[in-house]
Write a structure and sequence with these properties.
288 residues
């Protein structure tokens, strides 16, 4: 998906919502597991990947009208081995088949020496054919540039994250007072462009979005942390929105686990719709 196509989707749907698909078998409603077991034949054996896939499909169908992107986190699939990765692949295929205009972000936080990054890029952009991949910049240029060789694909670089430990390194200052996350933003822009690179900036960073926008005024930002982690959508928009919106705000737990009853999909759709309505208001305020 190109930048132009993404902006068109945001304006058309009045939304910049990204739904995180993080299926935790301990949180998936019991009714899904029961239904999966009931549908098995006499010679078939239940495994959790069946419930994961059923859960994802229901969540996707319920939230698709209100979001422009989905972000499956690889950890929640890799934890179940081969069957879990099969669920990831099927989830990607399901979105592509039924909702082809949604951006698919693999949240894998890859990044290694050049030849290894080449293999990671091949895995996600050729084999899995996702639209975007989160990447860790710690190892520098040769760990990032292999991901930038694919037309129509996005590299989403970790810049200023929403977790408590982000302050351990990301806010460290050099002798000139430049913080590490600012160095990451400036340096990465030498390798990628506004057409193929985004940055992860946590919603809990609040007014720090002003500092982000001073360094990277035009790039899209993937913003986790709204909802369950306490980030404010209004604050993110006030300090982080640019003339093209420039934001993909992710919500995972606040949507997909809003209910653990039989109505889980319906409630997930309602929560996504609520966020979409708030986003529509913010877009209108920004004249978009």
């Amino acid at each position: 998906m190109t930048r132009t196509e993404l902006i068109e989707q945001i304006k058309e749907k009045r939304s910049f919502l990204c739904v995180g698909l993080d299926p935790d078998i301990k949180k998936i409603p019991q009714c899904i597991i029961n239904d999966c077991k009931a549908e098995l034949g006499d010679d078939e054996e239940y495994d959790d990947s069946l419930a994961i896939m059923a859960f994802n499909q229901a969540i996707i169908d319920a939230t698709a009208p209100y979001c422009v992107a989905y972000k499956p986190n690889l950890a929640f699939y890799e934890a179940f081995g081969l069957k879990g990765m099969e669920s990831f692949v099927k989830t990607v295929q399901y979105i592509k088949e039924h909702y082809p205009h949604h951006l698919i972000i693999a949240d894998a936080k890859r990044g290694d020496i050049g030849n290894t990054s080449q293999m990671y890029a091949r895995t996600f952009f050729e084999e899995y054919d996702v639209d975007a991949l989160t990447v860790a910049p710690y190892m520098g240029e040769d760990s990032i540039t292999p991901f930038l060789q694919y037309d129509g694909k996005w590299v989403i670089v970790l810049a200023l994250t929403s977790n408590k430990g982000s302050h351990d390194f990301q806010l460290m200052e050099d002798k000139n007072g430049e913080r590490l996350f600012e160095k990451v933003l400036k340096t990465c822009q030498q390798w990628g462009t506004e057409e193929n690179m985004m940055f992860v900036v946590g919603a809990t960073q609040g007014k720090m979005f002003e500092d982000i926008r001073r360094v990277a005024p035009h790039h899209f930002l993937l913003v986790p942390g709204v909802g369950a982690q306490g980030g404010s959508l209004q604050e993110v928009c006030r300090y982080g929105m640019n003339k093209d919106c420039g934001l993909l705000v992710n919500s995972s737990r606040g949507i997909i686990y809003a209910s653990n009853e039989d109505n889980y999909a319906e409630v997930a759709g309602e929560k996504a719709h609520e966020l979409q309505q708030e986003m529509a208001t913010e877009l209108e305020k920004a004249g978009l």
